[in-house]
TrEMBL record:
Biased segments, Basic and acidic residues type: 100-115, 132-141
Gene Ontology biological-process entries: fatty acid beta-oxidation using acyl-CoA dehydrogenase
InterPro entries according to UniProt: DHS-like_NAD/FAD-binding_dom (IPR029035), ETF_a/b_N (IPR014730), ETF_a/FixB (IPR001308), ETF_alpha_N (IPR033947), ETF_asu_C (IPR014731), Rossmann-like_a/b/a_fold (IPR014729)
Top-level taxon in the UniProt lineage: Archaea
Bias (Acidic residues): 117-128
SUPFAM superfamilies: Adenine nucleotide alpha hydrolases-like (SSF52402), DHS-like NAD/FAD-binding domain (SSF52467)
Name assigned to this protein: Electron transfer flavoprotein subunit alpha/FixB family protein
One Pfam family matching this protein: ETF_alpha
An example Gene Ontology molecular-function term: electron transfer activity
Region annotation (Disordered) ranges: 94-141
Domain Electron transfer flavoprotein alpha/beta-subunit N-terminal, residue spans: 160-399
Amino acid sequence: MPEIDPTDHEIAELGPKVKDIDDADELREMLELEEEGEDRPPVKTLVESRIEKLEEDEEEIDPESVDLSDLTVADIANLVRDVDDVAVLEDMLEREEDGQDRKTAKGQIEDRIESIEGSDDEEGEELEYVPPEEKHPDLDHPTADKQWVERLEDAEYRDMWVYCETQHGELIDVSTEMLGKARQLMDDYNDQYGGDEDGEPEDVVAVLIGDEVTDLTEQVIEFGADRVVSLEDDRLERFRHEPYTEIFCSMARAGGQVADEGHEDVDWKEYDEPRYTVFPATNNGRDLSALVQGELDSGLASDCSGLYIEEAMISNPAKTGKPGDSKEFERILHMKRPDFSGFEYSTILCIDKPFRDFHPQGASVIPGSFEIPEADPEREGEVVEYEMDLDDDWFGVEVTEFDTLDSGIDLTGHDVVVAMGRGIGDSPTEGIELGLDLVDAFDDAAFGLSRGVITSSYNFEGHVESYIGEDRQIGESGQVVEPDVYVAAGISGAIQHKVGMDESDTIVAINTDPDADIRGFSDYYIEGDLFEVLPRLTEAVEAGELATAVAEASDD
């Protein structure tokens, strides 16, 4: 008997439960119960789809016997990534040449062979170090010192630093999300690498800057920090670019070769700079991350939604130091972010090269990308109250008057999110009202918008106008939500929006375009006018028949 009897649940409740089941036999038992009970087609389809997905994952492709003509170039790229036998790869290359003879497919196989055994090209020469002042004697503009930066001598890097942003004296959610992810990453890191080069475990370091932030030190430790470095000053009540950047960089360099005056020796840090830095991709976090990484002479992967640490095989001579050579780099933070077009992700790497270090490896994280961890009141950590003189020139602008919003709009944590897109264009005020009606019909729902609505020139009337603002935007530059049910009305499904909602358990899309991109990642696609469909869904919710109404409409 399976743990879940599908006949006891509505389809909207079953969606997230079924996705968490990894036993195909248990799913088949559920299917039998449904067929003997209510025998609902949408439920059977849901269970059957999960079974098919598990069976596909179980089927392993044998690189020695697979028919390469049945695979796409992307399939081949994924397949060869796990092949370490050069003989097998050479056989695959020969079969591809005898078959479709695709240049890009052969390139993937050849790249993997080169990654394993290196190149036979003996013509490449080791790069020769030339000091910047000799290589570029005429370079005298103000950024000369940043244009060609030399590596630190025998530099040491450690730990993952997390900038914990606060508002009104409290940690914002993305700060706790990043701490939880950093804790998981560094636990895995220490297991995989045995800690640093000397075998000492590396830590999660939380950074708190602001007014009355020391009150939060215990909280960040409970969420995963091993050490908290904080600086408190009433002039830092609101985010300021220069002082926040100067403070963070002073902390990061303390105890190292390039520490500023007065911080050459500290008892809590003996390395040059952090190995990794993580910031929130909020308005202030985006600014600070770019300024800090620039000041620390490194790079930044912005607006990331995924992070992991592993090796990277690189053949670029700018990184290896010798044309035709391949080199495996360890302890590399892989930073996944959505591309600007298409439904693809890029993985950004920040890798050292000869005579030049790129540390810290830095990323900013889209809010909502990771789960908020459970606080552990038993955790213990080190607290460092950082001291430094703050230059009055850093506070050259005086704020004489300001307004404080009572609260922002948090779309996360709700059972349902209803989001409206440019499909409201025929009658924008009415369209928003219909979306709000659907939100009101649920017990726990929130109202969101695509960027297209916020940046449009629609004229909204009455109370509707108060619902149009950037704080309701869902997507790459807005909030990331993962509700049980996500209703996308009149949204085409651009990658920037997809990033903000594609982890929802059940996605219901409404669009007049049969070929809209959002169709490809929706669980239910209703081809129709939102002005006609939304009232029907609202009635169905009020009658407790949403699952049936959605299934029937999408079948049509």
